[in-house]
Give the backbone structure.
Amino acid sequence: MNAIEVKNLIKYYDHGKVKAVDDISFEVPQGSRFGFLGPNGAGKTTTIRCILGFLNKDAGDITILGEKINPKKDVKIRNRIGYLPGELGLYKNMTANELINYFAKLYDIEIDWRFVEEVTDRLKLDLNRKVGVLSKGNKQKVGVLSTLMGKFDVLIMDEPTSGLDPLMQSEFYRIVSERQKESNCTVFLCSHVLSEIEKFCSRVAIIRKGKIVEISDVSDLKAKNLKHIELIFKTPESMNAFKSFLVSEYTESIIKYEFQTQLEFLLTPNQTRKILCAISEKDWAGAPIKDFSISHSTLENIFLQYYEDPKSKRGEIA
Amino acid sequence: MKVINIIVKELKKDFKSILIFTALMSIFFMWFVSFFDPELLAGLEEAFEAYPEVIRLMVGQFASLGEFGGFLNIYLFSISWFYFGIYFILKSGQNIPKEIDFKTIDIVLSKPITRTEFTLGKYLSFLVEMLFIFYGIMVSVLLGIMIFPTATASPIFLNEIIFAFLWNYIFMVALISTGFFFSTFLSSKKSLAFGFGVIIFFYAIGQFWKAFPEGVQDIKRISIFFYSDMSNLLVNHIWDNVGLHILILLTYSIVLAISAVIIFNKRDIPV
């Protein structure tokens, strides 16, 4: 079963003048960790707000946990959803404790207070302080706590680690992972921190100008994309000679970095195989090349590839 | 049940300010009752007769200042919209827009609560707050009547005074409903501008309709201020049309509250 299914979702702004979400469809399998990526204004938040019923969709269907819903009217389904907004607003005059209790009363489910206490301790959060005097990071912790306070089947989180220090970010992901193991909940994560998505999510959708441009497993996406090759030469002359060879023979290569004896470039998987053969057959093998490494392209490189204006050249990302 | 949770949360938020406001207003009106003197005020009434008609219309005509009912009508009921109405138009006109501006609405509406429950909770919290203030003031006025001997120097019609408080409360509900209605679909500033604009327009019509040409005087019927004039009840002790006027005020409030809920249900909550 899919936890979230969005079919042909369309949303206009400004009385139909601006198409914010343009006929997008995607499925988030139950129990998966799904990353939703896109630059500012791509339509990520609009999509989430349509799923949660904050915005009226102009067309399309939304299915949550197997139930086709009208997100605004079918509010009972929200007993199974934990949501952390990207721009978190909390009542400043309430203490964190009062706030969590208030949110708890809005649910029709039993709140797992033992877990709330545990998360509070692990996030080192003081629930007795007024939200208004908390730092940005501590406010975010209150938001995280409110998202994890119930045994929800779906967690929708928009920039969840915003404002958290690196230690707390790791702790947050540990807590979510443990929660997921325990309850097999689905995590729908919207983030600009690509390394987080790369580490945490198994599947990713990339949205650009209101359209989904790619949906794939993170591993597949990385595999079918450019390889990152780094070579260290013994002398600058050998590096220059190799660079000339690369540019003339592998015209689609993208040089990312060059300095003295170091050369970094990107190649497609197919070309990578070819260049490995070339290196072993030609003069480069052995003495001229001191060190050699091939790695998967990071999600950031893939991200840039999709976000680039199609009219511009790929080489410009280097 | 969730409506009650919203009401309780809103009341807790405003508890201190409402308590202080009620206490100050109660003391103020008890002090007012203390200096009611039929002879002195009857003399004052004669002096006011010399004022231009427009000024007298604006301040409730100073009819029967020498009677306790008339005195309360002029200094409490006819200008209660100024004492409490403005404060509550400000509050009711800004509450939902502020929730949207400060993004607090996102986390609340992501819980299993309908927009109807959310808006009704907000609306009813204002009515409860206003009820609390009115109850406090009514008790202080009634205590004042018992404490200060000058208050009972003229005949006191307690049933009329208590009923006038109820009527005035219903009028305040109409004011709150006006501010609240605009807040469900306009931004904070626009909501206030429209809320105050409409109230000032109604006030002008309700107070000055007698100054208009005879042919257009019926315009008074569109103003909620016309239906809140208690001078007939408190000064002349006439109950005619009281029920009808209260019914009109209630209908006005109910229509606006229902419209507010419908509009808020249909609108987008922007980022």
Summary: Chain B has a mean pLDDT of 89.
